[in-house]
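Cross-check.
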Amino acid sequence: MKIGSVERRGKNSYRLIVSGGTDTNGERIVYKKTIKANTRREAQIALAAFVAEVKAPGYQEPQNMVFRDYSEIWLASHAERELQPKTIAGYKSILERRLLPYFGKMRIADIKPLDINQFYIQMEKLAIVPNSRSKGRLARRTIHHYHTLLNKMMVDAVKLGILKENPVERCTAPKPKTRKIEFEENPLNVLLAAIQKEELRYQALLLLTLGTGMRLGEVTGLEWKHVDFEKKIIHIVQSAQYLPESGVICKEPKSTSSRRSIAVPEDVLLILARYREEQEGYPKLKDAPDWVFRQPDGGHMKPNLLSGWFGRFRRRRELPEMRFHDLRHLSATLSLQQGISPTNVAARLGHSKTSTTMDIYSHALRSVDKEAAEKLNSVLKLPTAKEESRTIEQEAS
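Predicted model, tokenized:
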């Protein structure tokens, strides 16, 4: 008896139909699944796999799957194969703290745009969901992260034939505000004075970040073989991350543009050289990489601990409110104010698009633009009425 068939639905689209026998009322059970396939032959092969899937013990029709079960499948079949460990850890945290308490028991096919919009509203107003320890308001950017993850999961559900359409496409998440970074000259001088009072390893760390605009993970992922003192260049080929379950790991930069070589200010290299000499007295840990930034006991200066240290350093030195990542922003601002082109600054920062740099640092570009106008004014300056009169008199005589 034929238990399955294939129907053509459109270009490269086929519906798989499998008979599941009858239910307790004698009604015929039919399982359907729409797939993408280049040929009917490919669809027939997919049908055979679908038949085996349906006949397996405990089979659950995809449309009846609850969101919690789908999230486990999605993490195993998609996220853990394609995404970086830190990204996966972040997604798991969002799922456990926010999405699963709200959507977990809902059938994935029953989640509608209205449900998703209500979730966003709840996140905006209360920022409190079942089993959540957070009691403060959430930033719009944080809620946008929830929107991004939910959209990724629903897009894949459509690709897998679980859903016909993505409900997130008809929702609007709160748009995060683009953070405009501004710094003044006086706080910079105060910061530099405070840095000089710290231990040499922290001086080297902070000045290298200011001098290059590197990310914290990129700085802590440096090994001495990546520093070329002769050519005064640093090669950024990896980034360090800390994950609670596995400790510090290194990964390749997230994009081609992030893998780069950048010139380093000479004074910063001198500080690095002094720090390297100091490290000769540190103990050598077996099988450990030759990290640039190490603790006196030889251990790695972990990125997560440095973020906390920087907060204590800022409060101890009574510095303006800032994060470690703001040193990268400050480096970019100073570069633009010194007349370095946005294209070159984008390359140093590892931005894939110059427009990203121009958008974030528009305030610095405005000051550069004003200076350019003043310089052009000196070239294009028109004579005043008095100067013009004098010129006419001289020509008449």
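The chain has three domains: 4-59, 67-170, 185-371. The chain is about 50% helix and 10% strand. Passed to J.P. for a second look.
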